[in-house]
Amino acid sequence: MERTCLPFLLLSTLVYCSLGQGGASLSISPDRSQFFKYETVSLSCEVQGNSAGWRVKRNTFSGGSSDCGGKWGKPQGSSCNVSLIPSDSGVYWCESGSGEHSNAVNITVHDGAVILERPALPVTEGDYVTLRCRHKRTPSDLTADFYKDGSLIRTETTGEMTIPAVSKSDEGLYKCTISKGESPESWMTVTVPTPIPSPAVPVLSMSLPRLLCSLLVGSPYLLVTIILLVKGCRSRAQGETRVPRKTHQDQLGDRVEEE
Questions:
Q1: pLDDT per residue as tens digits for the range 73-116
Q2: Cβ pair 109, 85 in contact under 8 A
Q3: How far is CA 92 from the centre of its chain?
Q4: What is d(CA 244, CA 241) in angstroms, rounded to the nearest whole number?
Q5: Residue 108 Cα distances to 19, 69, 226, angstroms
Q6: What are 59's strand-pairing partners?
């Protein structure tokens, strides 16, 4: 495999994994995992390429596994709208005709007066996350206690708790209470993004002759300089050849003539 393809392949792999096994993801609107009785939720299959053949499915404690459009929900292409009742609580996902499936989302339909609003899908480490304690009939800006794994972690007079940069240690089971009631517990998953490694620096694999040729072609001034040096060496060699060197006897004869 060529090194230049490495970043592109890594990016494609990360995008594929984030969508699920079949290259699809389930989105939910509104984006939360807890709902009051008779609220409406829209579930959509977001598919890479053609979404034909994908459908929303669920598994509940009372009804087992079934498709949208049977005894529950109104299908619209690869989406499904559901008017919720407590028996609709369960796990929802997208599935293709060949058995490929997306991520799963847990939905809880509460018959009481208080729910905890949090993102339905897993959050990524570093994200800004807001948890909201909501009452069915009164305004949401009520003093609320927020619990994680059964322990009180914060009291907020606005009814909201924010985590500016969520970390893996924030993963856990959350609930909230107000004077008028308590929400069901809800698990928040925090994922750690996989870093993309920097591509290795390509090693220069070139023979010396090819390297010299590349340098010469890429540097016209260097090429001209070498040509001039070669010409100068040749001219000097030719000059030395044309003027014969005097022998020892010739030098002696010159000395006698001078005397």
A1: 999 988 999 999 999 999 999 999 888 989 999 999 999 999 99
A2: yes
A3: 24
A4: 7
A5: 23, 20, 81
A6: 65, 91
